[in-house]
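User: Run a structure prediction on this.
Assistant: Running it now.
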Amino acid sequence: MAKKNVSSIEKGAGYFLGFITTLMNVARQKVVPFEAIYRLGTEGGYATVVKIVEVAYADWLSEQPKPQGGHPYRGGPTNGNSPFSASVVYVQPTFEELKCRFPAYVNPNCKGKRFDSIERCKGVSTENREVAFEYVHMDCDASTDEVLAEMDRCVLRPALYEELLGFAEKYPDEQRKYPIVALGSETLVYGDRYVACLWGGGHGRYLSLYWVGCDWDDGYDRFLAVRK
């Protein structure tokens, strides 16, 4: 019988006890009703747990060693020279097609969702074509609006969802280095705005969703952009 893939966290009863103790202590300090904590383990608390995990992941990334070298980021060349170019088909795949492209993980909230262009990208052509890409990499934690303002300063626009998928198909190993975010398209999950993000590691390549209201990490996040 094949061994079940069980993490060290799931094996550690002591870890769970410590985690629950810490969680309840924080709830007491913040005067949060225990019913709100209990809700996390129900279907109604799923969206909240997604946000908690994403914040935990961002904090963990900020503690990792910073990559050296690589492609131009903020402060790099802005003369239109791009290190990336990929063919883009402006059709949004089905959830089953996404799972074939990213077999390690696709955020389940992608199922049945459509990503719509944000206001500043409404006039972007959706004719299938070759697109040149650049990264924008902030040198400090930044909000979504601050990242978009930096793109405007560099005469760039955020990549659309379909462009992110085209990039991922051409450069599958890039997302193993750091999360790559497309801010040009958004979808709604439980009433909140989310954008698509590529990331991965030893277990494979992932397609995730990030809440646009979060602060983006200065150490790893790359924002896929297209010159205007």
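The domain at 84-227 is CATH 3.10.100 (Mannose-Binding Protein A; Chain A).
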